[in-house]
Write a structure and sequence with these properties.
By secondary structure, the chain is α+β, with helices and mostly antiparallel strands. The chain has one domain: Beta Barrel (Sortase, Chain: A). Helix content is 27%, strand content 29%. The radius of gyration is 22 Å and the shape is elongated. It starts with a helix and ends with a strand.
Length: 202
């Protein structure tokens, strides 16, 4: 009886080891694809309140752009040297846009207009997973097809997805707010956002 039990335990252990090896092999070969598909399900965008969206449309005439990009098109790149980020920025925040790069909330201003700019991206390895390494004073450069804008980080906050007041739309000062889901290694739906605040330097 003891021999039978011992043999059964050994068989179970061997089966578990084989299963672990199979899972590891699948992850090594398909890990990136699996992660991308999971991120597609993970809604990053924070809903901008309708009142804030209306406020954003009341732009100062002298700061308005001559030509606005079409929704879903790339109009800029964002560079964050400390974490080796150099990504395309698209106007809009759909799941497809966030799969391609960084999204720009349609309820916020554009660089150079003097108001709040809201960017978002997934917490994947290729996008914003290294946000925890950022420090106050770090530069962020946004290069558009109409100019280059340099920002400096002055604050970082962990907020709930429902705290829309932490991403205020205002037109008194040009502030770039960039956020991603938190925890950074989270897989699936996340209810917290890590927000980086940067003010226009030049």
């Amino acid at each position: 009886m003891k021999n039978v039990v011992k043999a059964t335990i050994i068989d179970v252990i061997v089966a578990l080891l084989i299963l672990i090896l199979i899972i590891f092999a699948i992850y090594m070969f398909l890990g990136q694809t699996i992660e991308e598909n999971i991120l597609l399900v993970n809604q990053v965008a924070v809903k901008v309140e309708k009142t804030a969206e209306k406020e954003a449309m009341k732009m100062n005439e002298e700061n308005r752009l001559e030509n606005y990009p079409e929704y879903g098109t790339q109009y800029a790149t964002i560079e964050i040297p400390r974490i080796d980020v150099n990504l395309p920025v698209y106007y809009g925040d759909t799941l497809q846009i966030l799969k391609n790069g960084v999204g720009h909330s349609s309820g916020s201003y554009f660089p150079g207009e003097g108001g709040s700019i809201i960017y978002m991206g997934h917490n994947s390895k290729k996008v914003f997973r290294r946000f925890s390494e950022l420090e106050i004073g770090d530069p962020i450069k946004v290069t558009t097809n109409y100019g280059e804008f340099n920002y400096k980080i002055y604050d970082m906050q962990l907020v709930k997805e429902t705290e829309t007041d932490k991403l205020p739309i205002q037109k008194e000062k040009e502030i770039l707010m960039v956020y991603t889901c938190y925890p950074f290694n989270n897989i699936g739906y996340a209810t917290q956002r890590y927000v980086v605040y940067a003010e226009l330097a030049d």
